[in-house]
Design a protein that fits this description.
The protein is an alpha+beta fold. The protein contains 3 helices and 7 strands; from the N terminus they run H-H-E-E-E-E-E-E-E-H. A hairpin with a 5-residue loop joins strand 6 and strand 7.
Amino acid sequence: MVKEIVRDTFFLAQKSEPADKEDVQVIQDLLDTIKANSDRCVGMAANMVGVRKTILIALIGNRYIIMVNPKIVRKSSQTYETEESCLSLNGQRKVKRYKSITVEFLDRNFRKKTQTFEDFEAQIIQHEIDHFSGIII
């Protein structure tokens, strides 16, 4: 089900908790919501739809990747500054991002995966993982 985007910065600033198999509906709601906003969104964390769980969806290439309980396990030494926006906020803000990251996560079926992402794809994932810690750009 498509959910409303949360814009309450107090809620967004709260830390998320690990997700489990009981959160499968959250995954579907998040997927429905990001697709409904595909004209202006390439990544979404569960707290953006009102659920403080560590679930994110990112548009990687031409498909959506679901990450449950993702953790960045490796970062490149190379960083860059860029500007980002967020559906939950107005405007853009400057941020520093790693050029390359390796992430361990569970997929939609709760199978463990490890994948490396670079450049804009890595940036999307870092932005969404920041949401889990209550970091708002």
